[in-house]
Design a protein that fits this description.
Elements: E1 11-16, H1 20-27, H2 31-39, E2 52-59, E3 68-70, H3 74-89, E4 102-107, E5 112-116, H4 121-124, E6 127-134, E7 139-143, E8 146-148, E9 154-158, E10 164-168, E11 174-181
Length: 192
Amino acid sequence: MYTNPRKTTTIRRLGRVDITALKAAIMAISEDEWNHENANKPNRFEALDATRHFPYRFVRNFRDWRDHYGCPQWEKWKPLLEPVLAAATADYGYARGEYPRVMLARMPIGGVVQPHRDANPAARWPHKIHIPIQTNDKVFFYVDGVEYQMEEGEAVELNNIGVHSVENRGNCDRIHLIFEYFDPDQPPPDWV
């Protein structure tokens, strides 16, 4: 499967970012808001199991990452999200980087994300980045069978084309900010 040659083949630790203000706002989201946003989410994949999502940006179709839009919550959350996104992606050096998908993913205690690959064409090109907002030492992320752990506030790119999965064996929900990032100046592949 052809992918962006700039993507990591395992994980790439991008460093810590300041999530203080963002985390405070996320932890104040009510259960009703989580349920409403999750019920209306555009990403419904079986592998995600009981993980709930709070989408901010998304692709219009699963073929082209360049065609994306702001979800209803984007404008409200943009002042908190944009500084975190920019800090996490600064090392890439893209002059005009774009974020086609941005969302929160909340995995319950005992939750799992089944082993899968993000195989739709719109997921094959952008970098896939996670920032744990709330986690614990019993959350395990696997990429191609290798176990990884991430700390709160640590930005990590992962190989979403490799087989990946997650288990939350801890005593609190795991909440990650998950987003994609790409360079619009990089020539698109011929399969688009």
